[in-house]
Amino acid sequence: MAISLTTRKRLHTQGFAEVSDNDLASVEPWLRFTPALCGLIVAAGTLMAEPWVFFALAPIAAAGAVFPVHPFDLAYNYGLRRLTGTPPLPSNGRPRRFACGVASVWILAIGISFAVGAPAAGYLLGALMAAVATLVATTHICIPSMVYRAAFRRAATRPA
Predict the structure, then answer these.
(1) How far is CA 58 from CA 4, 30, 62, 79, 128, in A?
(2) Is the distance from CB of 133 to CB of 35 less than 8 angstroms?
(3) Nearest CA-CA partner of 20 in 69, 90, 92
(4) pLDDT-derived band of residue 39, with 50, 70 and 90 as boundaries?
(5) What is the pLDDT of residues 119-158, one digit of tens each?
(6) pLDDT, tens digit (0-9, with 9 covering 90-100), for 64-121
(7) Are the beta carbons of 134 and 39 closer than 8 angstroms?
(8) Phi and psi of 12, rounded to 5°?
(9) Which residues are within 8 A (CB) of 80 and not within 5 positions of it... i.e. 6 or more apart?
(10) Distance (Å, rounded) from C-alpha 70 to C-alpha 133?
(11) Crossing angle for the helix pair 33-48 and 51-66, to the nearest 10 degrees
């Protein structure tokens, strides 16, 4: 199984530079799992305008920023992959963890917007967050990882 140069570049931007092409090719579809799940939860919470959804999701995203393995990646590694027969996901590098940190603050802002009676802000922030997560899940283009790379070029080249 091969991985395209475009996909490789996009995953490198997210911090998977130290993972071989063969290893990346075997898990590439499953690297979409965490952003897809996050995007679905954000979209559902936004449609329901329920602050508790975001207050529950924000610490999960924050854990993805602090630890090299996102909690949703753990759900894949210790559950779903056993059903699919695929290898575990690699650890997340600094750019992807930075993206999780951005997401945790953004998700918290959505929850606060709904909680304080500012639904227009909540809907706008929620729709934008769901769109960014969908972009990562469908194309591997991660805007926060790109921002990290631009802001911290030197640090982005070192392993996590």
Answers:
(1) 33, 22, 6, 22, 16
(2) yes
(3) 90
(4) very high
(5) 999 999 999 999 999 999 999 999 999 999 999 876 545 5
(6) 999 999 999 999 999 999 998 989 999 999 999 999 999 999 999 999 999 999 999 9
(7) yes
(8) -60, -40
(9) 30, 33
(10) 15
(11) 160
Output the CA angle 69-72-76, nearest 5 degrees: 90
Helix axes 143-151, 119-139, angle to 10 degrees: 80
Helix locations, 49-142, DSSP H: 51-66, 71-75, 81-84, 94-115, 119-139
C-alpha closest to that of 12 among 125, 115, 108, 141: 141
Q: How far apart are CA 9 and CA 110, in angstroms?
A: 31
Instruction: Using the CB atoms, write b or e for 7-22: b if 16+ within 10 Å.
Output: bbebbbbbbbeebeee
Gap between the Cα atoms of 150 and 104, Å rounded: 20
- Crossing angle, helix 119-139 and helix 94-115, to 10 degrees? 150
Q: Which two tokens stand for residue 86?
A: 């695929």
Triad 8, 138, 3: Cα angle to 5°: 25
